[in-house]
User: Fold this.
Amino acid sequence: MVNELRGKAAIVGVGQAGLGKAEGFSEVEILAEAARRAVADAGLTMADIDGITTASVTAPMWAMLVIEYLGLNTKFIDSTMLGGASFVAHMFPAIHALHSGQCNAVLVCYGSTQRTSSVDRATIAQVRRSFDPQPYEYPYNPLNPLSTYALAAARHMHEYGTTRDQLTDVVLAARSWAQLNPEALRRQPLSRAEVEGSKMISDPLTVADCCLVNDGAGAYVMVRADRARDLPQKPTYVLGAATHVWGRQGSSLPSLTETAAKVSGERAFSMAGVTARDIDVAELYDAFSINTILFLEDLGFCPKGEGGRFVSDGAIEPGGDLPVNTNGGGLSCIHPGMYGIFITIEAVRQLRGDRGDGQVDGAELALVHGNGGTLSSQSTAILGAESTL
Amino acid sequence: METGPQAKYFSLLAEGRFKIQECKSCGTCVFYPRVFCPDCGSDRLEWFVPAGKATVYSTTVVRRDPEKGGDYNVALVDLVEGPRMMTCIKGITPNKVQIGMEVEFHSIDAETHDAVYFQPAGDA
Assistant:
């Protein structure tokens, strides 16, 4: 049974590379550097890695290249591409592979140079029209992914009275956390007036409501819990993990104000045997400001429709009741195309007590929530320190 | 030549006809076109002309420089038959489109034949 996998695997190493601008480096090069750091952090060598999960925004045969480049001999390979949520979604199959004995150490890794690459996002969007057609949406020229999140925000405002001010609260909270993180790429002070005066892109979302576009690579290493205890770092145990998808396109999702995070969250909480009230720190994939509000609701941190009011009370800011996106989020820390690996790394650092000025005191239980596409894929993981086993 | 439902949909648009599917097993109206009903699994899907009436589920204005054509509307509308679809609302300033607004069929894109537009109801 799924619940028997609670706490059976742990994240024992994390690494990042090429954060911001990786001028002169390729995607696989910064991925390899992040992987090397994660494996070293775990107290292992690349020869110990016998399982891999990875995914690329653009390259469909990415896993083979990564295996080749890193010189791996892997018995477990998963390259499921669920957009930004992928590297949270990879956790569950990795637990299975470790628990069954298929492999002993899984490397989860990602790298993107979308900021400095000669292939810009407009070109990728153009190629995607041919290679990944959405013939019932493309003719209307939604500025996707942004426009679908804008449609979700507009609908959430209509149904629940969520305000522009509350979206701004999300943006400002992320920036406050970023100011406590030396790795965050946007740390300069930000005012409410600056957010509200920023350029409208797709109403009601402005450029300030959108995540950063940078380069960056991240990696983490998972092993079975019994082995984790013998490795140098404090293990981060995976207590629960689940992924759910209701559809890919905004026009085909049953709702834009309630996401499949409701289901992935319920399943992950059930496996972990904890509730939203037990969570010390939450890393919620904030590609856009509305995401934080949607996921606070869908994951049960507040009732449906109350997300706007929840964030307006300062609850998610540093010093608030529920620390959210403690690295500064996709909005102010980093977002290289797909961000799921970075929220996982941030949660691990919080549970290790390694986060310096941004450390949440006594953090023992973290929730990581990944989102992909246009609110399309939802992956929730509950991570815990030794005390939560 | 027999084609899949996608090619059929677009060839109907090219002939000036906007049609969607109805499942003859469970009665669900289906959009976008499928090879079987996503609700019940039956392949007894038949094409029909919808009433052309819908309600705006959500709306956004994509901002674009005037020299590139200016701002435009992107909306999701719920057809009275049930399905939701993406569209652009024509015949109204993009930012005047409201959630809950009643809209009706306006046109099929005259050049590309791949898009179905709506307009505020009663303005025809």
